[in-house]
Amino acid sequence: MVSRVWSLMRFLIKGSVAGGVVFLVYDQELLGPSHKSQAALQRAEEVVPPAMYQFGQYVCEQTGLKIPQLPAPPKFNFHIRESWNSGIITVMSALSVAPSKACEYTKEGWEYLKERIK
C-alpha cells in the first residue's frame, strides 16, 4: 500500500514539475521569435545569480556551513539568433548536398572494388 502511495506521489510531483515547465516556456514565449527568447535569457542572467546567492546564504544560516564565495561568471556577448541561423544554414546545406555526395561516394566505392577484384 505504501509503495502505491509513494508511486502516486512521485507521479504527481513529476507531473507538476513538467506542467510548470510547460507553462513557464509558454508564458515566457521561449519557443517564439528569437528576440523574445534572447530577452528571456537576459532576464534570467540578471535574476538567477542573486537568487542563487540568497539561497546559499539561507542554507548557510540554517545549517551553519560556510560556503566559499564563487567568482562572478564571465560576461560574454553571444547572440542566439545569429548562431541559430548559421547552424540551420549549415545543416540545410549539408542535407541538400547529401544525395549528390552519396552518389559520388558510391561511384568511388564501386571503382575501388572493381580495381581490387582485378
Automatic annotation (TrEMBL):
GO terms for cellular component: MICOS complex; mitochondrial crista junction. GO terms for biological process: cristae formation. Keywords: Membrane, Mitochondrion, Mitochondrion inner membrane, Transmembrane, Transmembrane helix. Its main location: mitochondrion. It comes from the Eukaryota. InterPro entries: Mic13. It is found in: Mitochondrion inner membrane. It is a single-pass membrane protein. Belongs to the MICOS complex subunit Mic13 family. Component of the mitochondrial contact site and cristae organizing system (MICOS) complex. Component of the MICOS complex, a large protein complex of the mitochondrial inner membrane that plays crucial roles in the maintenance of crista junctions, inner membrane architecture, and formation of contact sites to the outer membrane. This is MICOS complex subunit MIC13. It comes from Myotis myotis (Greater mouse-eared bat). The lineage of its organism: Eukaryota, Metazoa, Chordata, Craniata, Vertebrata.
